């Protein structure tokens, strides 16, 4: 495997937490300041390999789990076992098992959503946050998420992911490696397929993998998703309405944890889903008051595409709290 020497520096373990066994990769001294790294869809702990190297080299303990339903972590069969309470509960249990009272947190995509809610539910466990790709949105008081998404049409990827078995069937038309290449190479402005087409068919199949993803890494990802499939990850999307209902007691709540939010200026969400306007108009800062925003010239998988720049932003921000 490429970069085998660096992979050898990573420690792996299984941790019992919240009723599941969670696979955790770590790098750095066990006594060092801990940083919890939360991946998104469709990713794994290995998505953070560049950041883990740099964090360990700069005196931190990098902790990167495969989230519930991913990789070598358990994949519960019950689709209702993927609410935001379950996912955050996994992480609180992980921190308790590792005997860590407070940590820095870094999140991307779904990992960012989980990180926002970790900060909302248990701000006492988070020293500071660096999040990427997906901002925190105030809960709509009366309209559930799937109804809000209707404006994007039936071909919107989140809408297509709602129906059990639909996305699994369409993804199965391709080998897993092709599915991953399609997602990691997204550079379109809209994640809505034309009428009668599935989103995975709509995404272009690149002839090569992104330059920031090695063939060995893609093979590793492919093996893990081949083993478990995509149903676990899809269940995050299928619980969006349930999460909305469960979050009613937090209506109007703000996230007070110090936060740096990093967004790729070419990220589809930044361009087409109103994220850019939301951030620039102060909408995010209104509910995350202790906020810094950094825009980087890049796409959605900004932590891989611009790994060095993102890592520098993480290190510089966390240095303010040591």
UniProtKB/TrEMBL annotation:
Q: Name one GO molecular function term.
A: epoxide hydrolase activity
* Hydrolase keyword on record: yes
Keyword set for this entry? Hydrolase
The UniProt catalytic activity note for this protein reads: an epoxide + H2O = an ethanediol; (24S)-24,25-epoxycucurbitadienol + H2O = (24R)-24,25-dihydroxycucurbitadienol
Q: Which residues form a coiled coil?
A: none
The record's listing under Gene3D superfamilies reads:
alpha/beta hydrolase
According to its UniProt entry, the function of this protein is described as:
Epoxide hydrolase involved in the biosynthesis of cucurbitacin and mogroside tetracyclic triterpene natural products (e.g. siamenoside I and mogrosides IV, V and VI). Cucurbitacins have cytotoxic properties and exhibit deterrent taste as a defense barrier against herbivores. Mogrosides are nonsugar highly oxygenated compounds used as high-intensity zero-calorie sweeteners; they also possess pharmacological properties such as regulating immunity, lowering blood sugar and lipid levels, protecting the liver, and acting as antioxidants and antitumor agents.
Which protein family is named in the record?
Belongs to the AB hydrolase superfamily. Epoxide hydrolase family.
Q: What is this protein called?
A: soluble epoxide hydrolase
């Amino acid at each position: 495997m490429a970069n085998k020497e660096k992979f050898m520096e990573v420690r792996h373990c299984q941790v019992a937490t919240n009723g599941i066994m969670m696979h955790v990769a770590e790098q750095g001294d066990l006594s060092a300041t801990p940083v919890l790294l939360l991946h998104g869809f469709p990713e794994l702990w290995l998505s953070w390999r560049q950041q883990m190297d740099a964090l360990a080299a700069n005196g931190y303990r990098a902790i990167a789990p495969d989230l519930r339903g991913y990789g070598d972590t358990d994949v519960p069969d019950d689709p209702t076992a993927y609410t935001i309470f379950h996912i955050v509960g996994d992480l609180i249990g992980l921190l308790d098992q590792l005997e860590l009272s407070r940590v820095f947190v870094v999140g991307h995509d779904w990992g960012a959503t989980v990180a926002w809610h970790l900060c909302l539910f248990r701000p006492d466990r988070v020293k500071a946050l660096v999040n990427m790709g997906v901002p925190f949105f105030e809960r709509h008081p009366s309209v559930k998420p799937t109804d809000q998404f209707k404006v994007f049409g039936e071909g919107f990827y989140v809408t297509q992911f709602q129906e059990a078995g639909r996305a699994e069937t369409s993804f199965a038309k391709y080998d897993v490696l092709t599915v991953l290449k399609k997602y990691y190479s997204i550079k379109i402005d809209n994640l809505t397929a034309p009428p009668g087409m599935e989103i995975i068919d709509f995404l272009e199949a690149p002839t090569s993998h992104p330059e920031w993803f090695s063939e060995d890494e893609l093979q590793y990802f492919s093996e893990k998703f081949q083993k478990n499939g995509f149903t676990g990850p899809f269940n995050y999307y299928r619980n969006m309405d349930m999460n909305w209902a469960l979050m009613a007691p937090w209506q109007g709540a703000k996230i007070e944890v110090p936060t740096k939010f990093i967004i790729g200026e070419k990220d589809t969400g930044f361009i087409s889903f109103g994220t850019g306007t939301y951030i620039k108009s102060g909408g995010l800062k209104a509910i995350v008051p202790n906020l810094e925003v950094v825009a980087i010239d890049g796409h959605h998988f900004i932590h891989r595409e611009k790994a060095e720049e993102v890592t520098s932003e993480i290190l510089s921000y966390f240095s303010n709290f040591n």
